[in-house]
């Protein structure tokens, strides 16, 4: 099983890497095709995405709406800035909680790695205020605390 | 306290879901024992026990303010940055595990079709 790596880059960015056992074309498409996005981009267990719009072209609009089991919900809007199939997606997005969070500029790359794909996603780290707001909404069911601390304390590699 | 013993205490303190939820609540700001007990279906003495464990592990501090004993996260114990990153990691891990399954299904369909 391929493991997620998540690292901060300075105070302003987060870089996520993850390998998939499928060619870049397939992983790239799963990030742009609404029917596919609705099957995996759901966050915590129990959430669904009843609305998924992704115009999949430069300048195209993105709108994802999530619904939780308890009737909670929030949505995200964004715009696609650049597409370079099947290797690169550049887009901007914001959460509506319901007030919009500052724009998050995200570059996602898909690089062939043997028979699979190495995905790298570089995104803006929300500022402290925004992070608090996101945590306060219970987006993660409000119950999650830092395993990052555990990893740091114990010297476990964050990705293992 | 030796480092290994301190780590044991921290790990024990964080192993319990109620204590993790208490920490998550305190990450948003100071709260009294009553306020912390509110969302849980457990008694105030039970919450007090959890608070004692968290306090002994150095994760939270309690101050005296008249009859109130408000708790807050110990400085540097758990930052909202750690919490945000943990939330992001959890969401992405679940998303990408589902994407693995989706890609495997696509691959299986493709092989069947050829």
Short key terms for the protein model shown above:
heterodimer; A: 160 residues; alpha+beta; 8-stranded antiparallel β-sheet; 4 helices; 8 strands; 19% helix; disordered C terminus; B: 114 residues; mainly alpha; 5 helices; elongated
Helix-strand blueprint:
The complex is a heterodimer of chains A (160) and B (114).
Chain A: E1 5-9, E2 13-20, H1 24-30, H2 34-40, E3 48-54, E4 61-67, E5 73-84, E6 88-96, E7 104-113, E8 116-124, H3 128-136, H4 147-154
Antiparallel strand pairs in A: 1-2, 2-8, 3-4, 4-5, 5-6, 6-7, 7-8
Chain B: H1 3-14, H2 17-26, H3 33-37, H4 44-56, E1 60-62, E2 71-73, H5 80-113
Antiparallel strand pairs in B: 1-2
Helix pairs in contact in B: 1-4
What oligomeric arrangement do these chains adopt? Answer: heterodimer
Order of helices and strands of chain B: HHHHEEH
Estimate the mean pLDDT confidence of chain A: 83
Radius of gyration of chain A: 16 Å
Task: Give the overall form of chain A.
Answer: globular
Main interface pair? A-B, 42 and 41 residues
How many DSSP helices of chain B? 5
| Extended strand count of chain B | 2
Q: Strand share of the residues of chain A? A: 35-45%
**Alpha-beta content class of chain A:** alpha+beta
Integer-rounded radius of gyration of chain B: 20 Å
Written account of the structure:
- The complex is a heterodimer of chains A (160) and B (114).
- Chain A is an alpha+beta fold and 160 residues long.
- Chain A has four helices and eight strands.
- In chain A, a hairpin with a 5-residue loop joins strand 4 (61-67) and strand 5.
- The longest helix of chain A has 9 residues, at 128-136.
- Chain A starts with a strand and ends in a 6-residue tail after the last helix.
- Helices cover 65% and strands 5% of the residues of chain B.
- In chain B, helix 1 (3-14) runs antiparallel to helix 4 (44-56).
- Chain B has a two-stranded antiparallel ribbon.
- By secondary structure, chain B is mainly alpha-helical.
- In chain B, strand 1 (60-62) and strand 2 form a beta hairpin.
- Chain B is elongated and about 75 Å long.
- Chain B is built from five helices and two strands, in the order ααααββα.
């Amino acid at each position: 099983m391929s493991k997620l790596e998540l690292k901060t880059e300075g105070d302003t960015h987060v870089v996520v890497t993850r390998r998939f056992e499928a060619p870049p074309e397939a992983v790239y498409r799963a990030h742009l095709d609404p029917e596919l996005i609705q099957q995996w981009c759901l966050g915590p267990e129990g959430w669904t995405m009843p609305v998924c719009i992704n115009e999949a072209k430069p300048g195209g609009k993105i709108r994802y709406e999530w619904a939780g089991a308890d009737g909670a919900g929030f949505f995200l809007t964004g715009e696609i800035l650049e597409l370079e199939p099947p290797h690169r997606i550049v887009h901007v997005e914001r959460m509506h909680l319901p007030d919009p969070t500052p724009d998050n500029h995200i570059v996602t790359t898909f690089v062939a790695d043997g028979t699979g794909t190495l995905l790298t996603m570089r995104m803006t780290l929300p500022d402290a205020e925004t992070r608090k707001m996101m945590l306060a909404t219970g987006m993660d069911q409000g119950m999650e605390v830092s395993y990052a601390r555990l990893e740091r304390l114990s010297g476990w590699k964050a990705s293992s | 306290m030796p480092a290994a013993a301190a780590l044991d205490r921290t790990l024990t303190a964080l192993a319990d879901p109620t204590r993790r939820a208490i920490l998550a609540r305190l990450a948003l700001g100071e709260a009294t024992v009553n306020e912390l007990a509110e969302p849980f279906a457990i008694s105030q003495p039970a919450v007090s026990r959890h608070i004692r464990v968290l306090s002994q592990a150095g994760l939270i501090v309690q101050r005296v303010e008249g009859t109130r004993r408000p708790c807050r996260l110990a400085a540097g114990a758990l930052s909202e940055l750690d919490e945000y990153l943990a939330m992001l990691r959890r969401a992405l891990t679940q998303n990408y595990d589902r994407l693995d399954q989706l890609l495997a299904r696509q691959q299986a369909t493709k092989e069947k079709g050829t």
